[in-house]
Amino acid sequence: MYKIIRSLFFLMSAEKAHYTTMFIFKYISKLPFVYNMFQFEDNPTKIDGITFKNPIGLAAGFDKDGKFLNELYTLNFGFVEIGTVTPKPQSGNPKPRLFRLKKDRALLNRMGFNNQGLKALKNRLKTFRKKERDCSMKIGVNIGKNKTTPNENAVDDYVKCYVGLYELADFFIVNVSSPNTPNLRELQNKDELLKILNALISIRSNQETWKPLYLKIAPDLNTSQLDEIISLQKKISFEGIVATNTTIDRTLLKNSNHKIVSELGNGGISGHILLDTSNQIVKHIREKSDMTIIGVGGIEDEASAKSKLEAGANLLEIYTGFVYSGPGLIKRIGRLK
């Protein structure tokens, strides 16, 4: 059934299909039987003081502005990662900026942190929290910097988002790994990370409530860069890593026409092609650390989800697999131990 629905939406551009699908589901989800379709027995996982009803989350980028929290709650995600949010609204990169690479069951995006900004997200989160006071779906907020903010001032943007949303999120993710904001990945070097993470941890130490803090990394880091981040985590004790973001390595595409992909332009690639690379990074981190790992990249069925858990991930996130495999994927993998 989902394949038929997907084929219809795939007639639209990828970005238009995304918003159209969620707009339609916003109304369908209000039907009394829809909620029950996606329910399954809780598979609780306790990590960093938070009990997740199941270990399956939605990766950042799907709901940048917290517009679909009610619908994602209906789908029975254990948690969602909203954002990336920046202090000021920004339109992102010119359209078209999201493309399907169907032969590889992949997506290419160069969205560029398009979002309505800190104030808009704060208002939506306040409204949702008032309506769903006992929501069992945990909410992580992915924070970033505005494109116009130079890297030397990046810490200020992360601090603004962190402080502004601290009371409304269950946990935070620092995004320094998107390939679609110029020079952002330079913030993955040790000195820049130390500056950003130390500032956030210092703020947290003065809060009444403690919230976990994670770092989202690129799959394109080399071993020495990865080891630096592992060493940094042991030094300043942020809770863990989201591994991984999208890749700029197009050699992973095995079935797509490389000339056509090149003509689509720059962007990060996600999908099943990223599974092995992401799993190797998860495995490397796990061999050297007991930190929390949120594994994302290439999950589209039970086997790929299980492989990431076996590599050492504590929690899982989906995005591209959710697009290609449909919402039933949450139930299929949400019961894995």
CATH architecture: Alpha-Beta Barrel
Low-confidence runs of at least 5 consecutive residues: none
Structural class: alpha/beta
By CATH reckoning, the class would read: Alpha Beta
Q: Order of helices and strands, N to C?
A: HHHEEEHEEEHEHEHEHEHEHEHEHH
The percent of residues in helical segments reads 25-40%
Largest sheet: 8 strands, parallel, barrel
Cα(first) to Cα(last) distance is 28 Å
Shape: globular
Q: Within the CATH hierarchy, at the fold level, what is the topology? A: TIM Barrel
How many structural units, i.e. domains?
1
Number of helical elements: 13
The number of E-state strands comes to 13
Average pLDDT figure: 96
Q: CATH superfamily membership, which one?
A: Aldolase class I
Structural Rg: 19 Å
Main sheet: strand order: 3-4-7-8-9-10-12-13
Descriptive overview:
The structure is a single chain. It contains 13 helices and 13 strands. Helices cover 40% and strands 17% of the residues. The longest helix is centred in the N-terminal third of the chain and has 15 residues, at 14-28. The relative contact order is 0.14. By secondary structure, it is an alpha/beta fold. Helix 8 (223-236) links the parallel strand 9 (213-217) and strand 10 (240-243). Helix 5 packs parallel to helix 6 and helix 6 (154-165) packs parallel to helix 7. The protein starts with a helix and ends with a helix. The chain has a single domain (2-92, 116-247, 275-334), classed as Alpha-Beta Barrel (TIM Barrel), CATH 3.20.20.70. An 8-stranded parallel beta barrel has the order 3-4-7-8-9-10-12-13, surrounded by 4 helices. It is globular and about 50 Å long. It has helices at residues 2-9, 14-28, 32-37, 69-74, 118-131, 154-165, 190-204, 223-236, 258-264, 275-288, 302-311, 320-325, 328-334, and strands at 45-47, 50-52, 56-58, 79-85, 98-101, 106-109, 138-143, 171-175, 213-217, 240-243, 268-271, 292-296, 315-318.
